Amino acid sequence: MTDASTVPDERETYSYLGPAGTFTEAALSQVEAAEEQIWRPVSNVGEALADVTSGRSVAAMIAIENSIEGGVTASQDALATIPGLRIAGEYEVAISFSLVVRPGTRLEDVRTVSAHPVAYGQCRRWLHVNVPGHEHVVANSNISSVNALFDERGDIDAAIAPRGVEDRFDVSVLGESIQDNKTARTRFALVSLSRELPARTGADKTSLIVELPEEFPGSLMVMLEQFATRGVNLSMITSRPLPDRIGSYRFVLDLDGHIDDARVADALLGLRRFSPHVIFLGSYPRADRKPVVVDPKWGDEHFGEAVDWLSSLRG
């Protein structure tokens, strides 16, 4: 009989911003391939992606964009500087926060609030009205903010945490759904080293990072024209500074469509001719699964007809 302790665990490992209970874990729970696998909680985006590049994990779930705070800069910068990473899929999680305390603490007793900076930024209005004059103590995650309540120093009075955290910790809830925007959502990306592209679905997104080749009047317009003249919609564009060239930027782009769409492929060719610094992060199904609406003149059929017409001229 084989000793169970000597049998190698053949499950795959997925990394995510922990500990258990974070919104990142909620995003990972949407990944069918991650079911029944090993989930490894880590402290930050860098550690999660280091797990992927080292082979410790097959993929990592990281936050990409928040509907209120915008792009997650740590993730964008990591994707721009760590070679070989690809986005295999995107996932959305509705954001809802509670103010929690140790049992017996009253709202009027709260002087210090532990919170992740993004969570804190989304709850400012409620805190200003209900906890005026409080001090914000920065936490590494939405769950570590709760752990701070039980630090032996006892200098944290309250914490901003995901809704339902009272099911995991011995805390009392003083405020529910305290985020300023009740429709807030965060978009997450599952990142791996795999070169296998998800099949085109018609409801797809393509992510890129692009640097302008040089600074000249209209250079940004030239970059954008590569998409506009081919009927490719940009669903997101944000800039990040280049640390070694002050005043210069790279651009993080999301396009509506898949690299197997003729209009997207042609735009990428034009973009690469314009700039030698293009990072392709992947084509993958949109989280909302909404089909991309394309004007017929930009459809694959019309691109094919144009190619046939050009061939006929040469013939």
Automatic annotation (TrEMBL):
Keywords: Amino-acid biosynthesis, Aromatic amino acid biosynthesis, Lyase, Phenylalanine biosynthesis. Gene3D superfamilies: 3.30.70.260, Periplasmic binding protein-like II. The keyword Plastid does not apply. Residues 208-286 form the ACT domain. It comes from the Bacteria. Pathway: Amino-acid biosynthesis; L-phenylalanine biosynthesis; phenylpyruvate from prephenate: step 1/1. The record marks 186 as: Essential for prephenate dehydratase activity. One of its GO terms (cellular component) is cytoplasm. It catalyses: prephenate + H(+) = 3-phenylpyruvate + CO2 + H2O. One of its GO terms (molecular function) is prephenate dehydratase activity. Pfam families: PDT. One of its GO terms (biological process) is L-phenylalanine biosynthetic process. This is Prephenate dehydratase. It comes from Pseudoclavibacter terrae.
